[in-house]
Amino acid sequence: MRKPRSKERLQAELKSAKQRNxxxxxxxxxxxxxxxxxxxxxxxxxxxVRVAPPTMLSAEELTLLYWCASSYYSGLGEIVDAGCFLGGxxxxxxxxxxxxxxxxxxxxxxxxxxxFLVDHDTKQGFFQDSPLKVGDSFLxxxxxxxxxxxSHVEIYAGDIRxxxxxxxxxxxxLDVIKNQASTMSS
Length: 186
Fold this sequence. Notes:
Layout: H1 7-24, E1 28-30, E2 49-51, H2 59-72, E3 78-82, H3 88-99, E4 110-114, H4 120-125, H5 139-145, E5 153-157, E6 169-174
Helix pairs in contact: 2-3
């Protein structure tokens, strides 16, 4: 029987994983070997690795999103992906939704929110080799990255604080709250 990893070792492994992610500006995620774009639902760490859409999320976070949509989600509410950036979280959620056998109606169940605008940090970290400038939209890159899952996703471009909502939410993934100013109305 293997000895559990210590908290310090887990933190060191997470730090190492985040550093690799930052250096590559992409997260490796388990995909099937047949190039169909299907995320593997079991033991993704033992499957073949393919680069997913560029993301700031760790492989563990992507795996959790996949699990939430594939195993937890019942279809009684909507899935909100707030701060979807280039589609890493959206692809993980959509892949899980696709593989969820409990839910029949899967069209437009994921509601993805982002401003889809290049800022100084994303220009340096993700778009330095791109002709996009600070303030330009990267919505077309997001749409390209989620293309295989587009039927599951409703896209909302703009400030989430101005969005109206009146439906039940079953999964809420918030990756837009970056500072206190983000949570306050103008």
